[in-house]
Amino acid sequence: MEPSDSSVVMETRDLTKRFKDVLAVDSLSMKVRKGEIFGFLGPNGAGKSTTIKMMMGLVHPTSGQAFINGRFANDSAVELRKDIGFLPERISFYDNLTPVQTLNFFCELRREDKSAIPSLLKEVGLDEAANRKVGTFSKGMTQLLGVAQAMIGHPSIYIMDEPTGGLDARWVRMVRDKLRALNEQGATIVFSSHILSEVQALCHRVAIIDRGRLVAEDTIENISEHLNIKPRLWIRSPGLNGKLPEWIRDLEGIKDVSVKEDDLMVTCDAALRLQVLNSLKERGLVIKDFRTVEPSLEEAFVRLLTNKEES
């Protein structure tokens, strides 16, 4: 194995997994840097969970390698995983145990001090439910208990598979805030998702995969720049009613324009925004409000997958 870059805490090299006739992960190579929140993004069935299981040593790769802190991820040594907090995609606990009893069990498995359990439950907002049976919990509360068990021993790396999947807005916010707080405390966080807004709200960098293959790995800003996705002007103009005056397309500086009800979305170079607004006013368009809309991960995601299908 080549010497590991100390700034890289997780890495895959040509990682491949085949289940009979299904190629779930196809020559995947990516790197996760120390101290970042790394989003692992792709549609359902893209190979995200299989990759995570290989990185955790739960599934053996058909070929290729995965490394954690410079060591083979399929190494069976317990020490390799002591510093990882893992939240699987489908977390489940014994229904007849309380959160305290559940975390007692995991502390024994990890040989960690049980005295931290009250503070762990408080950190995820479950302190008032500490003595309720887990079987009475909602999906969101169960997910938070899963986050608490991942935090046992205060690991420096967290690997979480769809941590906000299926949760309502309240629980999504709580899980998101907890991930951000852990990262601010110095932890490296890898989480998979197919929810674009969640990834954009949290991640420093993302890896986008489709059908097991890497489509892109970079910051959202760099991916958008590479794809030539530009900021747009959102303009509210009462009275449009979904009809776009054809003369707008002919104005100098406008590269693309669309309308929905009374809202215009105009693509133009940043230096020409004021000129475009003035041109619209001079032609009699009423402008009630406007703002700049930065490129979104959704646009980059759709463009990348579209380009991949066309190539």
Give the low-pLDDT segments. Answer: none
Biggest pleated sheet:
6 strands, mixed
* N→C terminal distance: 34 Å
- Secondary structure: helix percent: 25-40%
The Rg value, from CA coordinates, equals 24 Å
| CATH fold group of the largest domain | Rossmann fold
Tell me the series of helices and strands, N- to C-terminal. Answer: EEEHEEHEHHHEHEHEEHEEEHEH
CATH architectural name of the largest domain:
3-Layer(aba) Sandwich
- Structural class designation: alpha/beta
Note the overall shape. globular
Number of domains: 2
Determine the CATH superfamily of the largest domain.
Answer: P-loop containing nucleotide triphosphate hydrolases
CATH domain class name of the largest domain = Alpha Beta
Q: Mind explaining what this structure looks like?
A:
There is one protein chain. The strands form three sheets. The protein has a six-stranded mixed beta sheet, sandwiched between helices. It has helices spanning about 50-55, 80, 100-110, 115-125, 140-150, 170-185, 195-200, 220-225, 275-280, 295-310, and strands at about 10-20, 20-35, 35-40, 65-70, 70, 85, 155-160, 190-195, 205-210, 215-220, 230-235, 255-260, 265-270, 290-295. Helices cover about 30% and strands about 30% of the residues. The chain is globular. It folds into two domains: about 10-225, P-loop containing nucleotide triphosphate hydrolases (Rossmann fold), CATH 3.40.50; about 230-295, 2-Layer Sandwich (Alpha-Beta Plaits), CATH 3.30.70.980. It has about 300 residues and is α/β, with parallel strands linked by helices. It has ten helices and 14 strands. Helix 5 (about 140-150) runs parallel beside helix 6.
